[in-house]
UniProtKB/TrEMBL annotation:
GO terms for biological process: glutathione metabolic process. Residues 501-677 form the Acetophenone carboxylase-like C-terminal domain. SUPFAM superfamilies: Actin-like ATPase domain (SSF53067). It comes from Gluconacetobacter azotocaptans. GO terms for cellular component: cytosol. It comes from the Bacteria. GO terms for molecular function: 5-oxoprolinase (ATP-hydrolyzing) activity. This is Hydantoinase/oxoprolinase family protein.
Length: 686
């Protein structure tokens, strides 16, 4: 047997998906995460998962790894103490930003915490102009003094960001050398290495996030690499990037910002594959784990790739799937705020101590505790019986919260679910309504261990008619690792008019990107027949502040006037489709040029099953009382075992469908049908 492994380590659980390339057999496993040292949980998951299929480490032919270490460090502000060295006069740029309020009419809204405190931000004399000429030479002595001051302040990482370093990076390079001489044991990075693109605020923010995560990811990868080596795996492990592809541990160590959406990105990759298999290409993914919820929109079977996104309020310039993350998960803690209202998240109890019902010392109720009290979640055990649950403890703590709020205990538990649902609905509207997409035109796909628990309620909140629950929803990110390719992205900013005279300069710049891609192919040992390249350019009308990505016909540096004309026409067509108008006379500019390199790998495949008919009674394993908001009380619910469901089976709510990695709730008035690939298609009753 030759097994391919996908391992996704979250804040609460570590998921393992195994695929035998010979028999096309799938297997899954799930263990608790170990936040103090995530590599321990990963090793346990791999060892136990291989044991369930009677395989050993030597049978592994591929290991892909996704992690939420970076995501959770940003959300919970648990990165390294970071310093910042910048051009004289730009010390406060990280705080000033674009001077945009996150919520225009909310006078009480809090801005995201600045990742570098002001006393750890140092200015140095240097100035490069927009055309690359040096106006002020770098004062190396001031850089050295700033590095020593940061060392004395106890920082663990330093980011360097100079104005126009993307045009001429030599000042940043020299500053990088000096800081590494003074602070050889610290993680140090420069903006031109991390995001060689224009817009200084976003570039500086990306460099800072990279430094903020650097020591965290360095320690994580070092421990994990050592454990995997001891295990005796015969292959080099890969780690997921935010763009849905995988890279080596060494590259992830140098550019941890590229992994900030490592965990959720492969869930989107898996959703794309399932959507294609079941002929439902328009999907909104809803990936709810223990610490956070990630949502993404797939139109015509593809998720939009963006060169810039906000991660919990921080701009990041890195190629990534258009995924929006909020601090709402199964471990999100519920409390009474200063105004006397119920609030849930973004703080999370994580895997340790975990929810109150885990009986590990936590006294603050979480979303999971609310589900246990309502009995939508099994009140006795999780993970197929491997994890005991204490409903009595959860009930007592929610009762205490209810007393604070002056509410009934069951209404409080339902209130926690309603607040979390509203938080998640706002996240979905960010990637749908705010970008011109009507959620009602899409199906909601539930991913993550907690996704199927809340999916129908969320869909009803958004007036969505269909919910898709995959066969293994709780390990979808791990499954996605078996469906993705090696991938790297390269970019450079050069603003120029899109006319025939630009062909020569454009060709030189694209040739440089292609050279970087070829070096990457060689480093990753990608066979020539498995390589593919895609070139594109961010384009805009002169004077605009936003760009559209336009693919260049053919992946070649031999740019002609005809190619430029075609790209301009394509830009105008897309501009009209997106904004409702396009000018045929205003000049168009090239802004940032990009190269996408993909190394194809063997992937898992899905198998369709014969229809067994609508009767699902053979899958019923019992029943229990469940509290529903429709009845404002408990009512008996049949419990179905997911593994026993067959293609064509039909289930009418209220009902609970349990499996090792997730629980699906069917409220009254809903209907679920098992399609040929054994995914659940739920009609929400709207």
């Amino acid at each position: 047997m030759a097994w391919r492994l996908g391992v996704d380590s979250g804040g609460t659980f570590c998921d393992v998906c195994l695929y035998d390339t010979d028999t096309k057999q799938f297997a899954i496993w799930k263990v608790s995460s170990t936040p103090d040292d995530p590599s321990r949980g990963i090793l346990s998951g791999i060892t136990e998962g291989l044991g369930t299929v009677s395989a050993g480490p030597r049978d592994v032919r591929f290991l892909g790894h996704g992690t939420t270490v970076g995501t959770n460090a940003v959300i919970q502000h648990k990165g390294a103490l970071t310093g910042f060295i910048t051009t004289d006069g730009f010390r406060d740029l990280l705080e000033i930003g674009r001077q945009k309020r996150p919520s225009l009419y909310d006078t009480q809204v809090d801005k995201p915490l600045t990742l570098v405190a002001r006393h750890l931000r140092f200015e140095v004399p240097e100035r490069i102009r927009h055309d690359g000429t040096i106006e002020t030479a770098l004062d190396e002595q001031v850089v050295r003094e700033a590095a020593r001051a940061l060392g004395n302040a106890g920082v663990k990482a330093v980011a360097i960001g100079f104005l126009y370093a993307f045009v001429r990076p030599e000042h940043e390079r020299r500053a990088l050398e000096i800081v590494r001489e003074e602070l050889p044991d610290l993680f140090v990075c420069a903006s031109h290495e991390v995001a060689p693109e224009f817009r200084e605020y976003e570039r500086f923010s990306t460099a800072v996030v990279n430094a903020y995560l650097g020591p965290v990811m360095e320690a994580y990868i070092a421990r994990l690499g050592a454990r995997l080596e001891q295990l005796g795996l015969p292959v080099a492990p890969r780690i997921t990037q935010s763009n849905g592809g995988v890279i080596s541990f060494d590259l992830a160590r140098a550019l941890p910002v590229r992994t900030v959406l490592s965990g959720p990105s492969t869930g989107v990759v898996a959703a794309q594959a399932i959507g294609q298999a079941i002929a439902m290409p328009n999907i909104i993914t809803f990936d709810m784990g223990g610490t956070s919820t990630d949502v993404a929109l797939l139109k015509d079977g593809a998720c939009r790739l963006t060169g810039e996104a906000e991660v919990h309020g921080y701009p990041v310039k890195a190629p990534m799937l258009d995924i929006h993350t909020v601090g709402a998960g199964g471990g999100s803690l519920a409390h009474r705020d200063n105004g006397g209202l119920l609030k849930v998240g973004p703080q999370s109890c994580g895997a340790h101590p975990g929810p109150v019902c885990y009986d590990r010392g936590n006294l603050t109720p979480s979303t999971t505790d609310a589900n246990v009290v309502l009995q939508t979640l099994n009140p006795e055990f999780l993970l197929g019986g491997r994890m005991p649950i204490r409903r009595d403890l959860a009930l007592a703590r929610i009762q205490a919260l209810a007393d604070e709020l002056g509410m009934d205990v069951m209404e409080t538990a339902q209130g926690i679910i309603s607040v979390v649902t509203a938080n998640m609905a706002r996240a979905v509207r960010v990637i749908s309504v705010q970008k011109g997409h009507d959620p009602r035109d899409y199906a909601l796909m539930a991913l993550g261990g907690a996704g199927p628990l809340h999916a129908v309620r969320l869909a009803q909140e958004l007036d969505m008619k269909k919910v898709i629950v995959p066969l293994t929803p709780g390990v979808m990110c791990a499954l996605g690792l078996l469906l993705t390719d090696l991938r790297a992205d390269f970019s450079t900013t050069q603003i120029m008019l899109a006319d025939a005279d630009a062909a020569g300069r454009l060709g030189v710049l694209f040739a440089g990107l292609l050279d970087q891609a070829e070096r990457w192919f060689t480093e990753e040992d990608v066979a020539p027949e498995d390589r593919s390249l895609r070139l594109s350019a961010d384009m805009r009308y002169a004077g605009q502040n936003y760009e559209l990505s336009i693919e260049m016909p053919g992946a070649t540096a031999a740019v002609t006037a005809g190619i430029i004309t075609t790209m301009v026409e394509n830009f105008m067509t897309l501009h009209e489709a997106q904004y409702g108008f396009a000018s045929r006379t205003d000049p168009v500019q090239f802004v940032t040029l990009r190269a996408e390199a993909v190394g194809r790998v063997e992937k898992a495949s899905f198998v369709a099953h014969e229809t067994a008919g609508p009767d699902a009674s053979a899958a019923i394993t019992g029943s229990r009382e469940v509290w529903f908001r429709e009845t404002k009380g408990f009512m008996p619910c049949p419990i179905y075992e997911r593994d026993r469901l067959r293609s064509g089976n039909r289930i009418t709510g209220p009902a609970i469908i349990e499996q090792m990695d997730a629980t699906t709730v069917l409220p009254p008035g809903t209907v679920a049908e098992v399609e040929p690939h054994l995914n659940l298609i739920i009609d929400t009753g709207l």
